[in-house]
Design a protein that fits this description.
Oligomer: single chain
CATH class of the largest domain: Alpha Beta
CATH architecture of the largest domain: 2-Layer Sandwich
Radius of gyration: 27 Å
Number of helices: 15
CATH superfamily of the largest domain: Bira Bifunctional Protein, Domain 2
Strand content: 15-25%
Bound molecules: zinc ion
Length: 418
């Protein structure tokens, strides 16, 4: 027990953390490029926020939240998704008084859901997400979608499809719920037990069911797009028009409903076949009622989120383009006590010049040091002993070619291209 991380959690280190950092750097670059700024919200919030913000009929709230009372007897919940916390922050800091839209992203934010642990699904996982608040225009939907599309493209993810749908405003959705409930009612006995429950509480969720028998029935369900009023239809059409103008490919899929209650109008998913069963790599949509629901003023908003674990799994399954090799610029070997001390100082000074230098801090023999230098992928090495110090000279060895060059100790930095 003591030496094993809790089920559904894991350590990320070594070659794997390099991949995370590579993807994170790409994400930051794309967000900053689109004028989206980072926000870091707390890992836990008042439970009430998620009951309001995520929806009391969702699986997340019903089954998956890590909720506990703290020592002050307040009900606290570990963040099960990223949007509600940002909605809270938007209200708390009066962001509606700043120039709109407010465009924010969060990156590798620890997120917690009590789920069956499996590949790509952890109980503590990490999310990247973008939220754009303060605009009702369909152009804002498209800006969010386009950022996700650029990320997917620049990471080189293939076989991925953007699926688009509109859930309409609450009135349209009400009409659709009614039509859907009627349809489900007619097929109720053939649906799975979970769907029977959903029929009462939230029929929309039936469209999400992964059970084969439910999927089959749902194929013939009425389309939400037939229930949209004029305004919601116009909004959805404009989204498609701008996407087309941008050259971003999409398919309209009326079965996309997303797992959360707060979505209005546009919803979207990027779906791929690369990680076994068909999976959503990234999903999001518009949520115009959320800020109000959480106690703020009516505020148009749109965003998306993606699980970092899933994204990395997809990348690995597809191209494994990560190099993954550890490397260091130079290894500073040492002979004798003076050499040992000098090597520490030389390493420190090279690092100050931006060079990835390593030296012995364990007390290895010279032979073992050189073996180690090979293992960590050092491009160059030197060995410093009494003679080298006295004569201010070292033999700089290119570890790949074996070439050796005599240089001054103080000149190492000049000889290393990095
Ligand atoms: Zn409507
Ligand atoms: Zn079902």
């Amino acid at each position: 027990m003591l030496t094993q991380a809790p089920r559904g959690t894991r350590d990320i280190f070594g070659a794997e953390i390099k991949k995370w950092q590579e993807v994170e750097a790409k994400i930051r670059e794309i967000c900053e490029n689109a004028g989206i700024e980072e926000i870091r919200t707390p890992i836990f919030e008042h439970t009430e926020l998620f009951l309001r913000g995520v929806g009391e009929t969702t699986d997340i709230v019903n089954k998956e939240m890590y909720t506990f009372n703290d020592k002050g007897d307040r009900s606290i919940t570990l963040k099960p998704e990223g949007t509600a916390g940002i909605a809270r922050a938007y209200i708390e800091h009066g962001m509606h008084n700043m120039p709109q839209p407010i465009k924010l992203y969060y990156l590798s934010a620890p997120t917690f859901r009590y789920e069956k642990a499996q590949a790509g699904r952890q109980r503590q996982f990490h999310q990247f997400g973008v939220e754009m608040l303060g605009s009702l225009s369909p152009a804002q939907d498209v800006e969010a979608i386009s950022v996700a599309a650029r990320l997917i493209e620049s990471l080189g993810i293939e076989n991925i499809e953007l699926r688009l749908n509109s859930l309409g405003c609450p009135e349209c959705r009400g009409r659709y719920n009614k039509a859907l409930r009627e349809f489900i009612g007619e097929n109720l006995e053939n649906l799975c037990p979970t769907c029977k429950e959903r029929y009462e509480k939230n029929p929309l969720r039936v469209l999400d069911c992964k059970e084969e028998k439910c999927k089959k029935i749902i194929e013939n369900a009425p389309s939400v797009l037939d229930c949209l009023d004029e305004e919601c239809t116009a909004h959805f059409n404009k989204v498609q028009e701008i996407l087309t103008e941008m050259g971003i490919k999409f398919v309209v899929d009326p079965k996309i409903v997303r797992g959360l209650d707060y979505y209005t109008r546009t919803v979207f998913e990027f779906v791929t076949n690369s990680i076994g069963a068909q999976g959503t790599v990234c999903g999001g949509g518009r949520y115009d009622k959320l800020i109000e629901e959480c106690g703020g003023q009516p505020t148009g908003a749109v965003g998306f989120g993606l699980g970092m674990e899933r994204l990395l799994l997809t990348l690995e399954a597809q191209n494994g383009k990560f190099e993954n090799k550890p490397y260091k610029d130079i290894y500073i070997g040492a002979i004798g006590d003076k050499g040992f001390v000098k090597a520490q100082a030389v390493t420190y000074n090279l690092r100050k010049e931006g060079i990835k230098a390593e030296c012995d801090t364990v007390g290895r023999s010279v032979k073992a040091q050189m073996k180690y230098a090979n293992k960590i992928g050092a491009k160059y090495s030197v060995i410093i002993g009494d003679n080298e110090i006295a004569e201010d000279k070292v033999s700089l060895k290119n570890m790949e070619t074996g070439d050796v060059q005599e240089i001054k100790l103080s000149e190492i930095a000049n000889y290393i291209a990095h």
